[in-house]
Design brief:
- The complex is a heterodimer of chains A (about 80) and B (about 190).
- With about 80 residues, chain A is mainly α.
- Helix content of chain A is about 80%, strand content about 0%.
- Chain A has one domain.
- In chain A, helix 1 packs across helix 2 and helix 1 packs parallel to helix 3.
- Chain A is elongated and about 70 Å long.
- Chain B contains 8 helices and no strands.
- The chains are: A mainly alpha (about 80), B mainly alpha (about 190).
- Chains A and B meet through helix 1, helix 3 and helix 4 of A and helix 1, helix 2, helix 4, helix 5 and helix 6 of B.
């Protein structure tokens, strides 16, 4: 399994973005069963991604238009409507 | 009136949502507000074409998405953000046989605890900023915002194969950086 850690880490990362082929899935699974290092790396990549998603959600919840922005948007829309 | 309703209501009903959507992607109040304005004006111009197959919000988000993708494309062109595919930074993590140079550690943390730690936010942001710009961009779009891969590829003008390569590089480098900045500073599980 010499070449395998590098390749396995690429497959593990890919699996977060695309559906792996059956062959790739098997390869990854077998490698993960035997290799604690890759298992750690894979778990951490998933942890980082899940945490990043949570952080981004929690941050965006506080974002609102300011009254000023809202007012200027309202004006822009009205102008446009009056011109038609 | 068309199926899209009164444009006046769009701002009230969807303004904050659309603004938040834009802000999470462009991180700039003025720019996000401009995009929102462009979106509402474009929607007003084309509202006769709205057939009501989707909700008004989905329709507006669709318009906004195009504006954001155009913006990101222009940004990438203007700053000429390129990353050579030939040089493979992931080789630094492995020996010539493809084995780990340094064993990755096991993390015991969970996303909720890390998310609640202001300090971790700072460390994560610092680590993201150490990545090459194009990796930062795709990582933010994909892992922070959760954009689908098709949208990221379109915005960045890259193939999905290239995207997967960039994401793998970004994730490996981030894991390493976080291990150094987080664990080795005493945040042991």
């Amino acid at each position: 399994m010499n070449y395998a850690c590098k390749e396995a880490s690429k497959l593990a990362s890919d699996s977060l973005d695309r559906r792996l082929s059956l062959r790739e899935r098997l390869k990854l699974k077998i490698h993960m069963l035997m290799c604690g290092k890759c298992k750690n790396s894979n778990k951490t990549m998933e942890l980082i991604r899940n945490t990043a998603a949570l952080i981004s959600q929690s941050r965006s919840g506080e974002i609102r238009l300011t009254d000023e922005q809202r007012e200027s948007l309202r004006k822009a829309l009205e102008e446009k409507r009056d011109n038609e | 009136m068309s199926k899209a309703g009164d444009p006046k209501d769009w701002l009230n009903d969807h303004g904050d949502y659309l603004y938040r959507f834009a802000m999470s992607r462009v991180h700039n109040e003025d720019l996000a507000s401009d995009m929102l304005q462009d979106t509402l004006l474009a929607a007003w111009k084309g509202h006769e074409n709205f057939k009501g197959q989707s909700s008004v919000r989905t329709w507006l988000v669709g318009i906004l998405k195009h504006k954001i993708i155009d913006h990101i494309r222009a940004e990438i062109r203007a700053r000429n953000l390129a990353e050579a595919v030939e040089h493979d930074p992931t080789s630094a993590f492995f020996d010539s046989d493809g084995r780990w140079n340094e064993a990755p550690r096991a993390w015991k943390e969970n996303p909720e605890d890390l998310c609640n730690s202001e300090e971790f936010h700072t460390v994560l942001e610092t680590c993201i900023k150490t990545l090459p710009e194009k990796q930062q961009l795709v990582f933010r779009m994909r892992d922070l915002i959760g954009e689908d891969t098709e949208t990221v590829c379109k915005a960045c003008d890259i193939t999905s194969t290239h995207l997967h390569v960039l994401l793998h590089r970004a994730r490996l480098a981030l894991r390493k950086c976080l291990e150094c900045e987080w664990f080795e500073r005493g945040h042991k599980p």
